[in-house]
């Protein structure tokens, strides 16, 4: 009986859903280190518009990206409800400014649908899949793409 429960948890994924650019996105919970209130960041010269600056996180300096701007959805308006999702990708810690965090989703792997082929390589690379929730769709963010876009813009 314990084996059946183990097999089930292997196919169950947990995601944190959030809003960026008025759209619903999510990240797998294992990628997230913490969620923090928005605080001003230290701007750096010659950065792309979607790189807001850096933040000191317990002695580590991390870059803060405006996820809506990164995805071409406009800059996130300043708001006291904004939060920074601190995530780790390929051993690098980054912060993502989002409008708000919504809920935790637990879904079976089979419920994650492929990103539709809309002839946009950037979309297919940035979004790993789609999850249907009630009458809407939540996009699964590819954190690697967020970081790679930064490497391309800087280097």
Describe this entry's structure for a reader.
The structure is a single chain. The chain has helices at 2-11, 67-70, 121-126, 143-154; strands at 12-20, 23-28, 32-37, 51-57, 60-66, 83-89, 92-98, 100-108, 112-113, 127-133, 136-141. By secondary structure, it is an alpha+beta fold.
Brief synopsis:
By secondary structure, the protein is an alpha+beta fold. It has four helices and eleven strands. It is globular, with a radius of gyration of 16 Å.
Note the topology.
Elements: H1 2-11, E1 12-20, E2 23-28, E3 32-37, E4 51-57, E5 60-66, H2 67-70, E6 83-89, E7 92-98, E8 100-108, E9 112-113, H3 121-126, E10 127-133, E11 136-141, H4 143-154
Parallel strand pairs: 2-11, 5-7
Antiparallel strand pairs: 1-2, 1-8, 3-6, 4-5, 6-7, 9-10, 10-11
* Range of strand content: over 45%
Euclidean distance between termini CA atoms: 53 Å
Structural class: alpha+beta
And the CATH topology?
OB fold (Dihydrolipoamide Acetyltransferase, E2P)
Task: Record the strand order, biggest sheet.
Answer: 8-1-2-11-10-9
Please give the largest β-sheet: 6 strands, mixed
Rg on CA atoms, Å: 16 Å
Number of domains as seen in the coordinates: 1
State the total count of DSSP E strands: 11
* Topology order in helix (H) and strand (E) letters: HEEEEEHEEEEHEEH
The chain-level mean pLDDT equals 86
Regions with pLDDT < 50 over 5+ consecutive residues? Answer: 1-8
Shape: globular
Number of helices: 4
Tell me, what is the CATH class? Answer: Mainly Beta
CATH homologous group name: CheA-289, Domain 4
Name the features.
155 residues, alpha+beta, OB fold (Dihydrolipoamide Acetyltransferase, E2P), six-stranded mixed β-sheet, five-stranded mixed β-sheet, 4 helices, disordered N terminus
């Amino acid at each position: 009986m314990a084996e059946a429960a183990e097999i089930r948890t292997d196919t169950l994924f947990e995601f944190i859903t959030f809003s960026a650019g008025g759209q619903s996105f999510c990240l797998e919970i294992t990628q997230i280190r913490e969620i923090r209130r928005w605080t001003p960041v230290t701007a750096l010269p010659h950065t792309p518009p979607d790189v807001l600056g850096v933040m000191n996180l317990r002695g580590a300096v991390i870059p803060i990206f405006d996820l809506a701007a990164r995805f071409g959805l406009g800059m996130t308006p300043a708001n006291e409800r904004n939060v920074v999702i601190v995530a780790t990708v390929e051993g690098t810690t980054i912060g993502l400014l989002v409008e708000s965090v919504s809920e935790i989703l637990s879904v079976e792997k089979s419920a994650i649908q492929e990103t539709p082929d809309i002839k946009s390589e950037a979309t297919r690379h940035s979004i790993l899949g789609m999850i249907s929730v009630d009458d809407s769709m939540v996009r699964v963010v590819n954190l690697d793409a967020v970081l790679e876009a930064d490497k391309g813009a800087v280097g």
